[in-house]
Design goal:
Serine Threonine Protein Phosphatase 5, Tetratricopeptide repeat; elongated; 2 domains; 12 helices; mainly alpha; about 260 residues
Length: about 260
């Protein structure tokens, strides 16, 4: 939040005791988050938000930033994901309408929404959101932001079973931002590896079903239990498709994206 937004909110607070209290709760919440007191920070911020919305309006930059702070501090359980989705979807919509969907602040909100959609398993929506944000960054002054969104887009595409979907944007990012060569190469390598792994799994299963039908169930089981690269334990795979290894109900790719999402947001 910049100083102008804070000054605007505090100027409104002078004649309003309700708003003064809300701003004090907001500041205390920020201090609690800085001290790693998550529960107290969330309690104070939830107490402040209704007053901020009533006094400043839901579209005021200070209110929006407070809502974004709340979303970024929520945990990754199912209930919190639903709340985070609602907050980020609202921020992306309102900021696109107010500033224009190609403006950096609107694109940043769209990117945050994409991370949370991917974490919630809404892969097709996440892919479309990431693509929209990447396209917007490529025509603006911050093409490097497009490069940073390519890995989470590629991960969501692999999980959705459409790894080749990123090809067009790999070329576009490389054209607009030549320094992204290393990042684009990494994404391409991961895509090729994923496609080859899926192809090999399908080939083995088809061969077993044709030539060794008695052993086909065992082959399907073994292929489905292959350890994914970089993991020290076996995880289930969808038949002939993308890795579907799960830990605590989430895919391995999704867990990595959530870590990136927390850093991003």
């Amino acid at each position: 939040m910049n100083r102008h937004e804070g000054a605007s909110a505090r100027a409104h607070a002078e004649p309003s005791g309700t708003l003064r209290d809300a701003l004090a709760w907001h500041d205390s919440a920020v201090e609690a988050f800085s001290a790693c007191d998550q529960s107290r920070g969330l309690m104070l911020l939830r107490r402040a938000l209704p007053a901020l919305i009533a006094e400043l309006g839901e579209d005021h930059p200070f209110t929006e930033q407070a809502m974004q702070t709340l979303a970024s501090q929520l945990r990754d359980d199912g209930r919190s994901l639903t709340e985070r989705l609602a907050i980020y979807r609202g921020l992306a919509t309102s900021r696109s309408a107010r500033y224009g969907e190609k403006q950096p602040i609107a694109l940043s909100s769209a990117a945050s929404l994409g991370y949370v959609q991917a974490a919630a398993g809404q892969l097709s929506e996440a892919n479309a959101t990431f693509e929209r944000a990447i396209d917007g960054y490529l025509i603006g002054p911050r093409p490097r932001e497009a490069e940073r969104l390519l890995p989470p887009l590629a991960s969501a595409c692999r999980q959705a079973g459409v790894p080749a979907r990123t090809g067009y944007r790999e070329h576009a990012i490389l054209h607009c931002y030549p320094s992204s060569r290393s990042a684009v190469r990494t994404v391409r390598l991961a895509r090729v590896t994923h496609i080859l792994r899926s192809f090999n799994a399908q080939a083995v299963q088809q061969m077993a079903e044709v030539h060794f039908p008695a052993f086909a169930p065992q082959v399907r089981y073994v292929v489905g239990r292959r350890p994914s690269p970089g993991c020290g334990h076996e995880q289930p795979h969808s038949r002939g498709g993308p890795v579907a290894g799960r830990s605590n109900g989430r895919t391995a790719d999704a867990q990595g994206d959530q870590r990136v999402a927390r850093d991003h947001v």
